[in-house]
Design a protein that fits this description.
The protein is α+β, with helices and mostly antiparallel strands. The protein contains four helices and six strands; from the N terminus they run H-E-E-E-E-H-E-E-H-H. The chain is elongated and about 70 Å long. The chain starts with 8 loop residues before the first helix and ends with a helix.
């Protein structure tokens, strides 16, 4: 009856890849003591009646390792960009020079580094939960097929495949977390 059951492992893998991509984006926004344009990705500015990413209201540059500059295109948005950065929780104090906003990246102290490693850990845990949710969806599909007449051997085979994929992605999350925490704690 259900010998033709095919679990869409490509879909499950694509969804787990999405969780990994989201984790990489969140990790990129964490400061490691070095200037990076990607650290401004989560900052949104109230521009023209809607929330807009900073990189869409100005040019973001990294002229030196401890400095980020934003050349705001619309002079009327300079103060809004400044306010958005101050309220973003990045711990950076913007300095304005006409339409250019300079963001000096201060040295991270030990306490702030530990805080950031905890934030990185929570991002990684969210990614693990996402991967496990995808795993649960796959297992539910298998259980439904079992109820429709799939053999127990096929059920074990598919469950093993889903579990192997889940283990692989969880290990990738853990590896990325370890790398990011190492970057943050590096003085």
């Amino acid at each position: 009856m259900s010998d033709d059951f095919m679990l869409d492992t490509d879909d499950l893998e694509r969804r787990m890849d999405g969780a990994m991509a989201n984790l990489r984006t969140e990790f990129a926004s964490l400061r490691t003591g070095r200037a990076s344009a990607s650290m401004l990705e989560p900052v949104m500015v109230d521009a023209y009646g809607s929330m807009t990413p900073v990189n869409q209201v100005g040019t973001v540059n990294v002229p030196e390792p401890r400095m980020v500059t934003i050349n705001v295109w619309d002079k009327g948005l300079v103060n809004k960009v400044d306010k958005a950065i101050r309220e973003s929780g990045l711990g950076i104090n913007p300095q304005m020079n006409g339409t250019i906003i300079m963001l000096p990246i201060p040295e991270l102290n030990e306490e702030r580094r530990r805080e950031l490693t905890k934030v990185a850990g929570s991002y990684a845990e969210n990614a693990r939960v996402s991967v496990r949710n995808v795993r649960r969806d796959g297992m539910d599909q298998i259980k439904k097929a079992k109820a429709d007449g799939m053999s127990e051997d096929d059920q074990k085979l598919w469950e093993g495949e889903v579990q192997e994929m889940t283990d692989r992605f969880i290990k990738a999350v853990d590896d990325q977390l370890e790398t990011k925490q190492g970057e943050i704690m590096q003085v």
